[in-house]
Design brief:
globular; 6 helices; mainly alpha
């Protein structure tokens, strides 16, 4: 299993898109586990944000991971921030709507 220290050690300086791809892979991996651990993906998304804080897609991706992890407050905040950065980023309002709707599946917002 991946822990936060091993994920942080694996993150080397580079293009935020590389970090985003890495975080996406970690999110997929977590979702396939019997007892998912979303922390490695969240750490990687946070690192990607530190490299490209003006990229709405990175904030949105972390919001999705937060939603899967059950941190709906943070998911709402990150999705809203993605929308503030890019009002045309259509996935963000869909995620916000899904988070607000009872019983809605976030899987349909990706």
């Amino acid at each position: 299993a991946l822990d936060a220290a091993s994920v942080s050690a694996a993150l080397v300086p580079g293009d935020y898109r590389d970090k985003l791809r890495q975080a996406d892979a970690l999110l997929v991996q977590a979702r396939t586990q019997v007892q998912p651990d979303f922390r490695p993906a969240l750490i990687a998304y946070t690192h990607a944000i530190s490299l490209a804080p003006q990229q709405a897609s990175v904030w949105y991706s972390r919001a999705v991971a937060e939603a899967f992890a059950g941190d709906l407050t943070s998911a709402r905040a990150d999705a809203a921030h993605a929308l503030e950065l890019d009002a045309g980023y259509l996935a963000a309002p869909r995620l916000l709507d899904a988070l607000e709707s009872s019983g809605a599946s976030i899987e349909n917002t990706q």
